Structure formats: structure tokens, C-alpha cells
Amino acid sequence: MADRADIEAVIWDFGGVFTASPFEAFNRFEAECGLPKDLIRKINSANPHDNAWALFERNEIDTAHFDRLFLDESTALGHPVPGSAVLPLLSGALRPAMVAALRTCKRHFKVGCITNNVVSMHSPGQDEAQRAAGAMGQVMPLFDAIIESSKAGVRKPDPRIYLMMCELLAVAPANCIYLDDLGINCKPAAALGMTAIKVIDVDQTLADLAQATGLTFGAEAAA
User: Cα dist. 183→81, 179, 199 in Å?
Assistant: First the structure.
């Protein structure tokens, strides 16, 4: 972990950090449809570099192809689910305290966003509900640099995407903090020398971020 004085940039994931985790929506969908809990996560974690989700997030297939491939993968596990049923579940409610923390960090550090997303109306910031909630307007303009997997053709946890962000921000990995709600995405960041923070909940994240930066964060900052 870098000394506080060495921190130059804070790099953020989007979904599950600034918005509620899509995993919560996945579990609600599974319960409503009588599917095993975490089925969608199991499908997405199988063959993680070349499954339907990975191909879609790298923009190597279109929505129709994703729909068919995801259905094939879920059917192989005994529970047919079309990909088109999963895409609307990606959006989550905005977390004002996290947006406030981003604003605070921006006053002291460079800030960037690395997001695995898809070319779809349901990708972060593109869903109608998120636009109505102001996710795109409130969050995205704050970043000094943004890398979207669907545009870059590379996705987390590929180490290249973290290095691409470091190049855009003109910082060394060792001088960065990285936040993500998935441990699998935090591991390569840490291996590169970044201070990685796994986002479990808002209070824990703000406490860990305060410890790493020396700044003060809190839900009251979002008021």
C-alpha cells in the first residue's frame, strides 16, 4: 500500500460502486423466477474470458448474439435464461455518498473510471432510469479519464486495462487507489502496485478510502 503522500490518482469502477450492485437485481430476478440463487453469477464466472458476457463486454458480439449465447450457457446448467432477460437488471440506484466522495477526491487527486460495460441501452449511464436519476450527468463528467470495456476491446481483470488508465492519467500504478466491488478485479490492480479497495458497502468503502487518502468522507457530504 502506498503512503498517503504518494497518492496521485483514485480510479473507480462504476456499477456496484456508484450504483447498487447488479448482483442484488440478479438475486431478485432468480427468486422471482424460481431459479437457484447466484445462477447468473455462476454463468458469468464460467469460462470467464470467452463466455457470452466477456464477449459482449469487449463488444465482440451484438445484443442478439449475446441473447442466444447466454441462453445456451444457462441451458447447459439446466435453467434456460435468455440474455435479453438479464440486461435490464444491470442498472442500480445511484449512491449519493459515493458521488460526494468522488467530488472530494477530485479536489485532491486525478480521478478515473474503468467500467466493464456493454453497448446497450442498459449499460451504465444509458438506461432510462439511470438517466432520470442523473447518474450520467452527475458522475461521468467528474472523471479525468474513462475507459469502457465495450469501447476499449479489453475488460477487467485484464491487467492491460489498468495500465491503459495509468497512461491516460500519467501516473504510476503504485501511486493509485483502485475501487471495485469485485475481488477478482481488485487483485490485478493490487498486483500492479495499486492500493485496492473492495467495495462491500458504502460505510466500509468510505472508511477504507479515508484511511488510504487521509481525507474525510461521510454520508453527510452527500446532503
Answer: 26, 10, 9
